[in-house]
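1st attempt posting a full record on here, be nice pls
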Amino acid sequence: MGQSGRTGATPLRPRTRQSNRSRTHCKLKHSSQAGQGGDTPKDGMNGSTYDVVIIGSGPGGGTMAWRLAQTGKRVLLLERGDYLPRERANWDSQAVFNDAIYQAPETWRGADGREFHPGLHYFVGGNSKVYGAVLLRLRERDFGEIQHPDGVSPAWPVGYDVFEPYYQQAEALYHVHGLRGEDPTEPPASGPYAYPPITHEPRIQTLFDDLKREGHHPFHLPVGVLLDEQDGKALPHSPCIRCDAFDGYPCATNGKADAQIICVDPALQAHPNLTMWTGAYVERLITDLRGGTVTGVEMVRNGERLTVSADIVVVACGALSSALLMLRSANDAHPEGLANGSGQVGRNYMRHNNSTVLAISRTPNPTRFQKTLGLNDFYFGADDWEYPLGHIQMVGKSDGTQIKGEGLPGILQWFPDQPFDWIARHSLDFWLTSEDLPKPENRIYYDGAQVVLDLKEGNMEGHQRLRRKLAGLCDAMDLHPHLFDRKLYLGKDIPIGGTAHQAGTLRFGADPATSVLDLDCKAHQLDNLYVTDASFFPSIGAVNPTLTIIANALRVADHIMERLG
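the predicted structure (as tokens):
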């Protein structure tokens, strides 16, 4: 999904952690007409011309490829990684969380000089291979200006009404299971969910009932999953088996509605006009002399430097990596980076203020598929706070290995005689999300060959108040009143490394002086360059951005299809 790396004229080889085993796995099913396994197009690889080249196969790029493949046009999808191997380690919490074996091996630096490993995943399907698959719409008010104590969340240049029909399409495409009408902050919808809500397991149903009894409005989380269930149990033919290794893990049964399973693989099988190359690290985009048109996509694949061209180029590497690609593509016509006439490329980076916390239930919690309940009662404020607080949801169930790996001395202080496995059996796990604000000084850039992510935390008071609200609910929910932080879930060793929910580095808008992309997500300065990851977000709200990325990819695809005729 990502295309990050160094700048300058020195040729680079794509960095990869894929083993021979994973490459073999990919070729077994995907190497024929799709070109994924190294097949050469009829006109050869170097210098090949396509109608559209898409860079990145995550929700933005994969969805775009699925939609444009239906036009019959020649479409090339480029992914710097390989297929994520299906193996026992997919469900091993030590391997996934403690050892982080699927995370990219990149080393970036903060503005203070500290090095860190960003939580990125370079695979077909991008970060959606390990996402939690909760696919919420931005609230209708999120599209307008919202005041926070630390500043303003700016209004979007288009309204919720523009996105609504694409949200509806995205929910159906990605098998979102949900129930309209439970959440009072839910925006208007043109129809019900195409799939029924996921059943709560008994301990979560009790939690749901307790919250309702206290006057709150818990709701069934909208989850993108290939699940067929009856009486709370997965049916024999269901790809999803309702296991405890769903949220944050790769899915070994292909039950998670990620971009590979939903869009990339079906499109490759159905449309021979769609080609995918894996192991294709795009170094830069080449333009004509005046800088108005992208004329080439230069990459390194299997140690060989290649250049292809297309009538239209779509960048969807992820907000951080897409900005880096623009900066690497600087030339005489674009000396500060491609499409950077506004000086905003790489700036206004947002990534949500996220916390994963663990509460101890006084009664055991044998739940396996825990990610079914959400609460937005404090999304836009509370009786003692006029500003937004954010979103609460259940997160994947922790186990003893994870809790031990977290190194949580606070837990042992409260439960000194209990082993980690006992703590896990009694745990309830929550994900808290509050809005981060776009600030020009929060940015990603190059310092010579080094990637630097300059980020200062902000707007944290609302997030801390949200945490206290959850703690205050604990007594009513039969929980111990103290909450414990789960840091490994976010895949970070210092706060800046938590790059989940990245957004905003190439924001869209009507004014070329203050934005990078126009309202169709085309670069203001180039007539054939589009971006369809979360780079375009002018603000991020307090829900996972993935459904909005998918909806926007469908929206921009309609525009590109008109251009293609």
